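Summary: Need help interpreting a holo structure output

Steps to reproduce:
1. Submit the protein chain below together with the SMILES for zinc ion.
2. Request a joint structure prediction with the ligand placed.
3. Inspect the C-alpha cell block that comes back.

Expected: a single structure record containing both the chain and the bound molecule.
Actual: see attached output.

Input attached:
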Amino acid sequence: MVGELKGQDKCPCNSEKEYQNCCKSIISRISSTAYKQDYILNDFIKGSKEFDNYFKDAEKSLKKPIFWGSLPPKTPNHIKIREFTSANGNHIIAFKNIPPKDITPSILAHEIEHIVLKDNSYPYVIISKINSSFINSMLQDPLIYNKLENVGFDAISDFNNNLDKLLNECGFPEKPKPQPTDYYEAVKWILTYSQIILINKNLSKSNLSNFEKLFCPFYKKISERTKSLITDVEKIGYKNPIGQEEVIKLLNKNYNLNIDYNIL
Ligand SMILES: [Zn+2]
Ligand SMILES: [Zn+2]
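--- attached output ---
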C-alpha cells in the first residue's frame, strides 16, 4: 500500500532499529497498518502555512515522535480522527480515512496538541465511569483553542461551528431533547458545557450568547451546576499540570467518577 510503513523500515521512534523489531507490536494493537509521516503530513504542510509553522514547533516539544495509523473499520462514521497513547508512552494518531482528506489542518493540529500536552506532563484520564474524553476535552481543549488561535488558525470559526453542531444535536431550535434523567448523562452535559465556557474564555473574541439563550433556560439544572463547577475550577486554576491534577481530583469527588489518570 502507498505510504505504508514496512517492517524493514527504520522505526520512527529513532531507535535505529527496524520497525518490525521495535515498536510494531505495540502500534499494531491500535492500528494494523502504520503510515510514514511524510505520506500523511505532506498535503497539510504544503496546503497550510499555519499548520507548517505549528508542526515545526510542536515537534520540538514532543518527547516521542507520533506514529500514524488508521481506525478500525467498525469505528462510527462521525469519528474521523483520534489520538492514543499506549501504556509505554507511544503516541498514535489514527484516521478513519487514509489519506485523511476529510481532516482540516486545524483539526489535525488539535489532536497533535493533545499529545504535546501529554508529553509535557499534563495529566490525562484513562479510565472513568464516563468516556474519559469528556474529562480530557474539558481540561485540554481550552488550552488547545488558545494555542491554535495564537499560531494563526481560525479557532474562533471552528468553535462557533462546533457550537452550532452541538445545538443541532440537542435538537434546537425546534425540538430540544429533554434533560437527561440518567445521572452520568447529566454529568457528561455538565462537563461539555464547562468545556464550552472555558474555551470561550480562552479565545480573544467569541461569544456564547446565542448558545446560552437556547441552552440555559432549557437545561436549567445542568447550567446552574456547571456555573458553580466553573467557579471552583477557576479558583484551583486549570492552566498548568498541577492545577489540572487538582481539577481531576475535584471531578472525581464531585461526581463519583472512579477516575484513573496518567502523567507521562
Ligand atoms: Zn521503535
Ligand atoms: Zn480536543
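--- end attachment ---

Reviewer comment: The first strand starts at residue 34 and ends at 35. The two ends are 33 Å apart (CA to CA).
Status: needs-info
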